[in-house]
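Recall the central idea of this unit: under ordinary conditions, the amino acid sequence of a chain determines the structure it adopts. In this exercise we apply that idea directly, starting from the sequence alone.
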Amino acid sequence: MRTDQYIGLTSDALNFVKGMKAKEYQIEGAWNPITLLIYEQDCKNDPVNEKHIYIEVVQVSPWSSGPMYFTHLRHQLVKKCGQIVEMSYLFSWVCDPNITNEFDVVNGHYYV
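Accordingly, the structure predicted from this sequence is:
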């Protein structure tokens, strides 16, 4: 049976965002909508920066009886003046042909 397979974030990424405010948004999958999260972290006692935003985005979607959605975090910094600065991508998956299963969420490796 062909189906959308949401794999999501690595274990390290989930530990990083644990306790942060989060809101959902959806993207179109091959057959069904995929729900992802946007996390926010306030910059306490920072005179210049207001908050960090971490947006869960699809990094790669290889095919295994349907697309598998491996996600990572896109980091944005919001300054108090309103400027949004694109920072980087965090906790990205690594393509590793040496793993025995299709993916390893603890080490953040996949090979499909």
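Residues 5-110 form one domain.
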